[in-house]
Structures are given as C-alpha cells and as structure tokens.
C-alpha cells in the first residue's frame, strides 16, 4: 500500500531536513515541472488527477486554480491553510510537523501553476512545533534556491512567509483567513467575488489545504493515473484519516481513499475500548453529521459519505460510544461553535448561544419538550445560504443528526429531568 | 428589465440590488445593515426573500435581497411563507439579547427595530435565558451610548469609519459579545458623530442634547428648516415642544446633504433655548409692548438720518425689508469689508464665469478635487464629507470591469483597498482631509494662490503665468494640472476662509481653464455664513462706509439687524461708531456686545421661530419654515420691519401685508433672486383643501399640555406665512418636497421612512430635491481670467503672518452659544511653528504677546510642525477673541512675553 504523503516520516517524528527530504526524492517534482511544464499544463494535469480539496469541501483543486485569471498583471497569492482547528482533526499537523518541505514543494508547484509570486502559510497559533519546523525548512529552502528569485534557473520567483494566527476557528474559513492575514477582523467575506478573483488584498488568490498541497509533488511526479489508482473509489488519491474517541488506539493514518469506517475503526484504531459499543461517529470533524452503526460499511470518500447523509470533511472520525451522553457530546460541540462564531451575521451570532443554552438546560434535566422544536428550528434556519458563511450550517450538522439518531436520549433527559448517563455513573459510584 | 415579485411582473432598473429595487417599488421589506449611502454587506440577514430558478421552480431558495443583483426575468417572492418565517426569526434572534426597554428608550417611537419587529410579526418570546449585558461608555456631550440595545448591524462603524473617515469608533470582541464603541471612554472625535443617532437602527447611539429635554418624535411639532451654522445650507428638521426647540435631525435632500448633517448643525441649536435670550423690547432700559415699539421707532426714525446694517445670518426677507425701510443707498452689509468684497467676488466668479457651481452630491461624484485655502471640515463640514466620498468612489470606476456593483460594499472595499481618488489640498495648516489627500501644500494664502495661478496657466496658456515658483512647487503644480486635466469630473474647491481674494481668483482661473477643455469641470466656493451669498446678492455698501456715514455726520441713527458688529469690525472702531451714533436700534435674538449698546432693543425670532429664505454657497435658494410661534414679543426681524415700514408709510413697503408679499417683492426687485417665490409653494397652497400638518397624527396631549394654565384648549395658531398648520390635522400624504415637516409612513416610524419620499431609494425626493440654483454658467468663448500678483511669502523678523484657523466648534457665533457645542470649543490660543517657537524661546502653553492691526493679543501658544515658518494661526471667531482682519502681520511684543514669564 502506497503512502506517498507520510512514507518518509521519521519514526521519532522529527521533521525531515532538506537533505533528508532531497534524499527521499524531494524537490524532484519541482525540478521536473519548472523546466518542462507550462503553468497551464500543471493546472490541466492536476485537474485530471481529480485531486479534491482536503480541507473539507472537496472541490476539485485544478478546477479551482483555473478560475485565477491567467493574464492578470496584478500580484497573485497562494496561501496554505494550515489553521487546523476543527475539533477532532489533527491530520495536517502530522504533515506540518514531520514533512515541512513536502508542503513547501507543493506550495511552490501550486504558485507556479497559478502564477503567484508571493505565498503565505497561515498556521494555527497552537502548532508551535510545526511553526518551528516550518521556520527552519523555509530558511533551508531559501538557502537552497527553491524559494526567492529565479528558482532553479526557471525565471520563476516566489516569496514564502509563515504567518501564525491568533487562535480563532473562524480563520480556517478561507475568506476570514484572508481578512485575518490582512490584519482585519476575522470575519468572512461575501462570495462572489471568490478569492480566485479578489482574494488577499483584493488580488487573485488561491487558498489550499495543507494535505491538498502535499499531494501535488507526487501527482506531478507520477501522473494523474497513478494518483487515481491509489484510491479505492472515484475520488482519487490517499487520505489521512484519523480516529479519536474511546477507541483502543486513536491516531491518524494515510490510507487509500474510500476505506470503510468499519475497517478504519477496527483495523487501524484497534476497535472500541473494552465494555464500550460504537454508537456513532462524526466522519469529518465537529461540523459534520453523525453516521451510525448502519453506516459502518460506508466508504469514506466524498461521494459515499455525502450519499449517507454526512460529509467526509477532514476525514477524521470523532467516535461516540454508548456510555457517553450524546446530549452532552453535542452540547460540548455547540459550546465550541457558539464561542467561535465571529459575530457577523444574526442567525449564527444569536442562534448558536441559544442552541447551546437549550442543550445545557436539557443536559441538566431542565429541558422541555418544546426545546426539541426550538433545536429543530435552528437546524432548519441556520442552514446553508441563510447565514453569511458555512460556519453555522456546519455547527448544525452534528445537532440535526443527533436529533435524528439519538432522539430518545434527548427525550429521556426531558422526561426523567436528569441526564440518564450521569445517573448511571452516580449509581455505580454509590 | 422585468422582475417578477410574487408572480407579478415589474419594470425595474438594472444595476441595483433586489432590496433597493423592492423598496423603490414600495414593498415593505425589512432590513437593518443595508443603508442607501453605505451599501450592502449581508450581515443582518433580515431582508431574506425566496428566489426561484424559473417559472417551474416551486421550491426556491432563501437569498438575502441586499446581496443579489436584479436580473431580467428573475423571479422572487416576498410573501413566501418560509421567507416570512425566516425574517420573523431573525427578529426573534435579535430580540434574544435586546432589552425590553422601549418605554424608557429614547428611540422608542422612531425606532427602526420596533418597526421591523412589527413588520415581521414577531410577538412571542421563546428565548427564556438571560440576556447578555455590556458596559456603556461616555462618548462626549453629543452622544449617549447604551450598548445593551445593540443588534450588531455594523452600521455605526461602517458609517463612522468607512464613510466619514473616523478613527475612534470600532467593533471589538466577537461572537454574541461584539461591542461597538471606543477603545476607552472619551469624546467621539468625528465631526459627524451625530449621524450615528440616525444610522443606528435602535437606541444604542442617541442624541444626548435631546435627552436633556426629551420628547418622543411623535410629540414634536416639526418643520422643514435649513441649517444656520455654515454656508452649505444643509436641510434639517427642527422639532419643538412646550415652546422649546428640542432636536435637529437631518432632512434628506439628495442634492445637498443627502442623509447626513454635521455635529455643529445637529447640536448647535440650543442657543434658541438660552435663558439669556432677548425676549422683550427695551427702549432705553424700559420694557415696552410690541405696539409701542413701532410707535416709538416711527417717531425716532421719522426725525433722523437712518442707516441699516444687515446680516449674513439673517434671512433674505429680513435683509430685504431692512434695505427697503432705510432705502437702498443707506443699506450696509454687516460684515467686515474683506468679507463683503470676497462675497462679491464669489458672485462674480459664479455669475460671470463659465464653470458651474456644484452641489455636494456633484462633489461626491467628482473624480479629482483640488482644494485651495479651505479647511473644509471646520469651515463647511459636510463638504468635507462629500470630498471624502469622491476620494472613496473614484477608484471604484477602474474596477468596473470586474463586474462588482458599487453597492456591494464589502467586495468593493476589498478590491479598492487603500487606493484613493486624487485630492490635492493647499491650506495654511493641516486639515482633517489630509489623511486621504494625494498631496498637501501648507503655506501662506498668497502662496496658495500662486500655486493655483501656476496650475491654471499649465491648463490654459491664456490664464496668466505665475513664474516664480520653486522647483518643488512647479513639480507639484504640474502634477495637479496633469491629474485635473485627465479627470472626467474635476472640481475646484475654495472659499472665503483664508480671507484672501487671490485664492478665490486662482481657484476660478483653474476651474475656468479646466472647463474650457472639459464641460464637466465645476467649482465650489464656500462662504462664512448661512446667508452670506443672499446678503451679497442684494447689493449694499461696506461696513466701513456705514461707520464713516455716522462718524462724518451723514447719519445719526443705525438699525442693526441680527448682527454683532464686534464680530465684523475692529473693537476700537465699533466702539467709536456706537458712541457717536445717536440712536442705536438693534434687532436680535441673542445678547451680544452690540445688543448691550442698543437704545432700542427689539427681540427677533431665531430661525426656529421664523419663516425665511437663505442662499447657500452653491447659490441654491432654500426656504425654511417657522417651527413654532414665539412667545412674548418675539417675532421675525422682517415682521418688525414690515410693521415699521407700514407705519412710516414707506412707498415700497406700503402694499406688504405678509411674508408672501415681501417674497414677491424680492422676486421682482432682486435679479439673482427672481425665482425666490418658486422655491416652495405659497402660503395659500392647499392639498385637497388641506394644510400640511407640523404634527404627526399621534401627537399627544394637545388638550392637556397647557391645562395647568387654562383648562380650555387654546385655539392653535394660524400660520399666515406658509401652507403648514400648527396641528395634527391636515393632509396625510406626501407633501411637496420643500415642505416635508417629518418623515413618516405607515409602519415606518423611524427616519428609514425616507425611502417612501424618494423617486428611487437613495435618489431625489419625489418631486425633485428642494432649492433652486440661481446661477447658471455663462457660455463664453472668451474667458476673462483674473490677473493678480500675490506676494511671495517671506518671513519677517519679529513678525509673524497671522492667518485665521477655523473651528467647527467655536468659530460660528450661534452654535458656540449652545452648551453641548460650547463644551467642544477650544480655548483661545495662537499656533506657531515648532522652529519659530524654539527661536522665540517659547514653549507650548506659554503666552505669546503680539499686536495685529493695532489690536493687542496675549495668548497661550500651541506648537505645530505643520504651521509654515514665519506664520501663526489665530482661531477665527472664537468666543473671547477680539476681531481682527486677517491675514495680517503680527508684531511680536517680546518684552511683554518676558515680563509675563519672569
């Protein structure tokens, strides 16, 4: 099984130095592309490879690039979205900490494709280890001539800067990220215009996820067919999947796209901890719908997960077991979302705290049956298009599916005026 | 193009968004964050409608109408159940944290949030948790802050920062805790902060001066009026209750002030309520009745040689009545001779020159601006706001190809970034517009004129050459000339505030030279007071001549109308004049050093108690209406003079019975003002036989408010001067645009109801924006360029060239008497250059002693590196600072300084 992204990660998880990366074939892809391929050819090839954005939305990367005006004389920008802050998600972290040069190479290739001469890595503030690794890698790459003027004699110039955020989930949203990078409040922007037309400082900009960018050197080295063949499904490539929750071996693994949830949990995460049963999972971070037992054999790719009523998102499972209160679980998530709302649009700013308060009151046994209607109302009206950006709709995904799959738990809380899980724990203690 | 709304086709204009289109069509679609002047940002989500792909699409999807451009054959539904439900829930969400304090909230009854809540039908509270609370801030004497009421529409910061260029109001924190305020308690710095009270859709920012004598909007007796505090003539609505003027709000005029007014205009009204107002007629210390005043004056005037001194702050009617009473040859302008000459020069430039005089709306649309000599923010504040819009707008033109409509505010800002349209400012000191200027030039008024003449010559060889510029100055002149000549709609702005004719002449030459190549080029000239131009249009002699007439014995009696001569003439001369003058008859509303010397003092009405007409800097004739009938003996100056004229049997006045008669006479007599009678419908005008009421139909307490004095309800006064009534009865529809006493429409109690009075939202009022421009540019092939030779500035030892510095709060006489504005007035000072202060061995706040034109001054020093060397700035018109004609050389009195400091 090929693991192009993670194959060279050292056992001690120290970042690969430039030398180590080059020894492992690093920057060969760049050398090949920058001499032999036109930017347009790069875009076409990536389009053909069917690489879909690994940040969660799953948009075809090559297609996204093709919207950048090729003839534009204004500056263009490439940005690596390394603001990995989705609860339960830690896939980019591995790439950032262990193979920083792979990201840099991917970014140079992407910049070359879209004609960007300035690029930024927008890194989550808490990723200190990654910041350290990237800082060093950037210095090495600059010294080696992979960055700067006239890269490898090609005439192509690229500056690359590391920017660390101040710790807001919102900054992971690409347009809020752009505002933040410009030094403004991290609120999202209206689309259209899309960043490809008016992005950073109002200029054409591409924002790609770290994992997406890391795929590029391999795709361009080995070709689109090779990349497609890595996958078990129509969505190409490998994917770094993760599992968190009460499983025996939580972690992240690079696996062929389209592995099933059952395989992932049982073969890689070691199955549920003893005495616990699988109850459900958020397949792609906190802002995706629950999948439950009946979905265990769903293939974890964009198309299949969507067909099952959720989203692949970041591909990192958060597991709910049968001893954990789903109401408390969701309340926790909604607390996070209510805290992280940027406060720009009404439904998100005012709706999420209300949802959180209702869940809290249900969890405390103070809920009323009409509260369930209120929650359902929010899941309906905080939907896509009603709010300014996708934040609140994302926040509603775990709630709406919890209400669907775990409704009896909510009702039990209300009828028994106590959290049944807590009562059980208390009775065990007594 | 055709837009289908709920399956009915409508013919609509392209380029607009759906919200403004629906509002223009008359639909009641709720909104918060969108504002016609601020554009769309999609934050509040209140204006959701259903949009359908095509005729067959029955499901549709919710969209925000403010963010969606209209398209041909587009299908939307406002009435769709889901859209209505969503809009109702947006209010429900906003209400989760909004306090239920309407009953004690200043905004209640004129609150957009209240209106929208009723409009969407939200009535039942499902949220049963605690509300979030905030701390409020002290924001100065103008604005009250109550953050708990905030619904986070972001309009305040978008107006304050993005539109008006303010820097000290911002949004802080995030999520449901976002906070709109200053970084710490303190006075809001922007000169346009008062607009927050109208921009805010609820009661977060409210008028603090109104709070001192609070009245609900529906309980105010209001009338359309015109601001009296600078020459721009912004349209205002003035409101009264219990004989007290209680608030000033902006009256929309698409061509003049749009939606906004400045803080001087909004908060400067309280001089009207001042306890010291002149309320009784006094003849030689004896209080006399109204009838007796006329009788006594009749005798006095009949047996004397009388002159009349008019006023730039009195109406056209009052000045005209005085002129007719004393005779044309005995009518004098009550302004300094310099100001008199400058006003005449302005008329010459606007009347005889080819370049059109422009409105503020036209300035907003300019794509290159050159300001000569004016610190607009302090001399004509709303013009500064218009210039700011020009600078903000111009770069948008280059972005048209990206296909982003101008109303898409967020996207436009992102694309435009820090780009600004060309703006050049030549002034004696820094101005508040410098932060958006392409280049600034700080020097003496004559140097400014020299730069101007050089620019004009570069644009047109026929304009006289200005040879002796330094290489840097030449470079600057070339840059200005080249940018102005490339512009499609260049505007030259100047004015009387640096009191130098050369500056105005240079501005005229540039505008004319530009106009020769480009018919779109225009000129804007500002003047010192609200009716400076109206007064100058009527002819009349200089003040100096008035003084001489008395001092030389040609006259022994002076009627001084609404004029403190000490603000227009040197103290020693005015003292002498008033001493020699046998009879001093003064008509005024507020006490001042001149009224103190009156033998006969007659109480005039302020603008709020008067009908009248003003001519603004643009040459726009505008009518203002009496808000309430004054009590005691107060009446309009023109009414006093009319009575006197009739009693004296003055021929020209013999047939005058009313305001209307005077106005007709002006139209006949004064060529510039021939259209004055067409500015607003005559007094006899009725709609369906009805007057237009000054009071809303909800006006309360009419039968009770005076019951403590007399239980029988008094008969409402009858207005013989206008078609407005003093009651709540009358015509309920849209009145003619010149006489809108208040904005109200069913379901729209806040100022947002302005939508219903416009041809299209954000456009002109239904029957055109009020006011008639009295200058039409002269079509001529031969331009009579000014030829003058302003002096090269050279500093002189032991001298400083003193130039006037203007203050929005303080330089204007009447507003400075209002307590809130008074609080913002600076203390007198003199500003000198940093290096000069070092040479003089004088530090900040130490006192400098000097003499200008024989007038001694001793003032604390302000040091500024931006004040040109060899020059010093003296605040204009500040209370406590004696008048002196500037610019003039000040002779330093070093000994006095040393004595003082030792």
Percent in strands of chain A: 5-15%
Instruction: Name the CATH class of the largest domain in chain A.
Output: Alpha Beta
The number of distinct β-strands of chain B equals 35
Count helical runs of chain B: 26
Q: Indicate the radius of gyration of chain B in whole angstroms.
A: 28 Å
Helix proportion of residues of chain A, in percent?
40-55%
Strand order of the largest sheet of chain A: 6-5-9-7-8
Quaternary state of the chains: heterodimer
CATH superfamily of the largest domain in chain A: NADH-ubiquinone oxidoreductase 51kDa subunit
CATH architecture of the largest domain in chain A: 3-Layer(aba) Sandwich
> Total domains of chain B, how many?
5
Question: What percent of residues of chain B are in strands?
Answer: 15-25%
CATH topology of the largest domain in chain A: Rossmann fold
Low-confidence regions of chain B: 898-902
- What CATH first level of the largest domain in chain B would be assigned? Alpha Beta
β-strand number of chain A: 9
Quick check: average pLDDT of chain B? 95
Helix/strand-derived category of chain A reads alpha/beta
Describe the structure.
- The complex is a heterodimer of chains A (430) and B (902).
- Chain A has 430 residues and is of the alpha/beta class.
- Chain A has 3 domains: 18-230, Rossmann fold, CATH 3.40.50.11540; 238-321, Ubiquitin-like (UB roll) (Roll); 326-429, NADH-ubiquinone oxidoreductase 51kDa subunit, iron-sulphur binding domain (de novo design (two linked rop proteins)).
- Chain A is 45% helix and 11% strand.
- In chain A, the strands form 2 sheets. In chain A, strands 6-5-9-7-8 form a 5-stranded mixed sheet, with helices on both faces. In chain A, strands 3-2-1-4 form a 4-stranded parallel sheet, with helices on both faces.
- In chain A, α2 (28-36) runs parallel beside α6 (100-114) and α15 crosses α16.
- The longest helix of chain A is centred in the last third of the chain and has 18 residues, at 346-363.
- The radius of gyration of chain A is 22 Å and the shape is globular.
- The N and C termini of chain A lie far apart (51 Å).
- Chain B is α/β, with parallel strands linked by helices.
- Chain B folds into 5 domains: 2-97, Ubiquitin-like (UB roll); 274-335 and 530-624 and 633-679, Rossmann fold, CATH 3.40.50.740; 347-528, Dimethylsulfoxide Reductase, domain 2 (3-Layer(aba) Sandwich); 681-735, no CATH class; 799-901, Barwin-like endoglucanases (Beta Barrel).
- Helices cover 28% and strands 17% of the residues of chain B.
- Chain B is built from 26 helices and 35 strands.
- In chain B, the strands form 9 sheets. Chain B has a 7-stranded mixed sheet with strand order 14-13-24-23-22-15-16, with helices on both faces. Chain B has a 6-stranded mixed β-barrel with strand order 30-34-31-33-32-35.
- In chain B, α8 packs across α22 and α19 crosses α20 (571-580).
- The radius of gyration of chain B is 28 Å and the shape is globular.
- Chain B starts with a strand and ends with a helix.
- The model of chain B is unreliable at 898-902 (pLDDT under 50).
